[in-house]
Amino acid sequence: MSDQVLSTERLWVRRVIRSDVEWFYRVYSQPEVTRWAGDGKPLTWDDCARWVDVTLENYAKYGYGMFCVLEQELDQVVGFCGLVHPEPGALPELKYAFAPEYWGRGYASELVPKFLSALVREFSLQKLIATVAVENKASQRVLAKSGMINVSSRAEGDSLTLVFERSCTFD
User: Fold this and answer.
1) Domain boundary assignment for the chain
2) The N-acetyltransferase domain covers which part of the protein (predicted)?
3) Are 33 and 22 in contact (CB under 8 A)?
């Protein structure tokens, strides 16, 4: 994949570069974002720098990782979307997040289906998953619109997480 991965009507997606740690921090240091991700705690600058390092390693290992999502009109990072491997041998897992000031604009619904289709075609993925908090109804709708099916749930700490799965076809 080139640095610019794809575009939609209002967004474009590009590879992460080392200096994007600033954008990771702007998004993932906000409690309203991280309440839906990982352990729910805002990330530190060092955490974000590690995420960038892991992303760059994933590009080398898998050809994909996390990507910056930019609003075309502003040419500014508004969020992130990508696939990660939480542990060796795990299925690729979809992750995405937008800065809160960009919530409610339909960006995830616009981006995620097209992004997944591009990754499936490019990398011949057979199956992938996404996890979402049971309270996060908006993301559940995005995943369903993207062809993902809720296949199970699991306890994570004090909360319940839903596992969505997509068996991939080459559309």
Assistant:
1) 4-167
2) 11-169
3) no
Token couple for 106? 């339909």
d(CA 97, CA 80): 5
Q: Are 82 and 116 in contact (CB under 8 A)?
A: no
How many other C-beta atoms are found inside a 10 Å radius of the C-beta of residue 163?
17
Contact 67, 80 (CB under 8 A): yes
CA distance 83 to 91: 9
Calpha distance 8→138 (Å, rounded): 20
pLDDT tier for residue 2 given thresholds of 50, 70 and 90: very low
Best CA proximity match to 99, nearest among 19, 21, 9, 33? 33
Q: What is the pTM of this model?
A: 0.86
φ, ψ of residue 60 to 5 degrees: the values are -70, -40
pLDDT in tens, 54-96: 999 999 999 899 999 999 988 889 999 999 987 777 889 999 9
- Has domain 4-167 been given CATH number 3.40.630.30? yes
